[in-house]
């Protein structure tokens, strides 16, 4: 069981034991997806488990946890991490605005990677049709894909793929972030 649980939330009210990370306009959706992937890793959870003395994670504890800086993720890392993180996070229409944000900011290569990930999800699960609920009004420049379909076995595989890519930068690689993830 994980002790550090991170997720995307729409802007809503929450209790005092929920730590919010609010980002300005300078943080792109793909960077947020990489951060979400980082904060849901087993390595992150292990360190959080060692730091926590109780059930609530305070802000001062969060500041001590191993969060990788956005500059560490190059385009190759993002092309691997972002589509998998989106499949894990964007499984309902109420989180679809996040997928739209990432899609809108993505270049052609990242969009192709996201679409490829969605097609793999559809092949494995049957996928969802693009049929938004009445309460959801997609923006004009939205992602043409519906939410990913939830499948426990597939989610376990995706989490394992993300865990396998996480490692510290090697000491011999000081000029490139290519081996940082």
What's the gist of this structure?
The chain is mainly alpha-helical and 181 residues long. The protein has one domain.
3D architecture notes:
- The two termini are 24 Å apart.
- The protein has one domain.
- It is built from seven helices and no strands.
- It has helices at 29-39, 42-51, 59-62, 75-89, 96-105, 108-125, 152-165.
Features of the shown structure:
single chain, 181 residues, mainly alpha, disordered C terminus
The amount of beta strand, in percent, is under 5%
What's the overall average pLDDT, rounded? 83
Shape: globular
Q: What is the rounded Rg?
A: 17 Å
**Secondary structure tally, helices:** 7
Helix- and strand-based class? mainly alpha
Low-confidence parts, pLDDT < 50 over ≥5 residues? Answer: 168-181
Extended strand count? 0
Helix and strand sequence = HHHHHHH
Question: Helical content, roughly?
Answer: 40-55%
Main sheet attributes: strand count, strand direction, barrel closure: none
What is the number of independent domains?
1
- Separation of termini? 24 Å
Topology readout:
Layout: H1 29-39, H2 42-51, H3 59-62, H4 75-89, H5 96-105, H6 108-125, H7 152-165
């Amino acid at each position: 069981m994980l002790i550090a649980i991170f997720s995307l939330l729409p802007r809503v009210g929450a209790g005092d034991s929920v730590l919010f990370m609010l980002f300005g306009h300078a943080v792109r959706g793909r960077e947020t997806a990489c951060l979400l992937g980082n904060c849901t890793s087993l390595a992150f959870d292990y360190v959080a488990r060692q730091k926590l003395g109780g059930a609530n994670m305070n802000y001062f504890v969060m500041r001590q946890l191993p969060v990788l800086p956005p500059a560490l993720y190059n385009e190759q890392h993002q092309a691997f991490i972002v589509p998998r993180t989106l499949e894990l996070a964007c499984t309902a229409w109420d989180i679809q605005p996040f997928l739209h944000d990432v899609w809108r900011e993505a270049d052609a290569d990242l969009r192709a990677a996201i679409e490829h990930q969605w097609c793999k999800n559809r092949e494995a699960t049957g996928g969802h049709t693009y049929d938004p609920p009445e309460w959801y009004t997609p923006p004009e420049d939205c992602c043409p894909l519906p939410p990913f379909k939830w499948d426990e076995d597939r989610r376990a595989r995706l989490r394992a793929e993300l865990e396998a890519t996480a490692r510290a930068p090697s000491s011999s690689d000081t000029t490139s972030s290519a081996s940082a993830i």
